[in-house]
Amino acid sequence: MVMVTGLALMSLDTYAQNSAGRNTRASTRQEKMDAWHRDMAEFRARSAAERQLAALADSISSVQARASLRNQDFVLEADNITFKNGSTVFVNSATNFISVKGDRAVVQISPSQFSSGPNGVGGVTVDGTISDQQVTRGKDGRITFSMNVNGIGINAEVHIFMFPNSNQATATVYPNFNSNTLWLSGTIVPYENSDVFEGMSL
Predict the structure, then answer these.
(1) Which of 6, 74, 104, 135 is exposed most, by the fewest CB atoms within 10 A?
(2) Has this prediction a pTM greater than 0.90?
């Protein structure tokens, strides 16, 4: 009888320990789940705030770019260039650009990182005076800036297209003395905010 009672007590004790273990594990799992939910909520809150800040920065950049375009005081800093044969190269925006300051424009194409080129920074730099400039706005919100650039090393028609609600832009350069059309893509920034490096002009 004593032995039976002892076995029963041992069984109850084991059951209690197992139940306590299950409760502890369940509590631990719940705590982990609660912590995960808190972390995700914080992450979503941070992500939303970061998206709002990014949208605000894009909006400010767009407004500044549009104003600088209208004032003829801007630089299109290109990060890629497409040539007439269809080949596209990614380039350094500090040395590949179209700048406009008042009635002066500079077009610099420096795709090479391995040779100095005529301008000393891997390509060609040409500058000239602007004429026949025009700014138009399409129904889709896209801004188009058109101009002729005439100088010793350049005689070209240039069209710059800036996308709506952005400072992203593309430009097409049509040389009047040959058919070597170029397409540049990049961002438009106010002239004073640009850190491009201008090489030696032709």
Answers:
(1) 6
(2) no
Q: For residue 189, what is the enclosing H or E element?
A: strand 182-190
**CATH code for residues 1-202:** 2.40.128.410
Phi, psi of 116 (to 5 degrees): -75, -35
Please provide the size of the chain in residues.
Answer: 202
- Integer Cα distance of 77 and 188 in angstroms: 6
Spell out the per-residue pLDDT of the chain, length 202, in tens. Answer: 544 444 344 454 554 455 555 556 667 888 888 787 787 778 777 766 666 655 555 678 889 999 999 999 999 999 999 998 999 999 999 999 999 999 999 999 999 876 778 888 889 999 999 999 999 998 888 999 999 999 988 899 999 999 988 999 999 999 987 888 999 999 999 999 999 999 988 7
Cβ density class 55-80: b for 16+ within 10 Å, e for less: eeeeeebbebbbebbeebebbbbbeb
Domain boundaries, the chain: 1-202
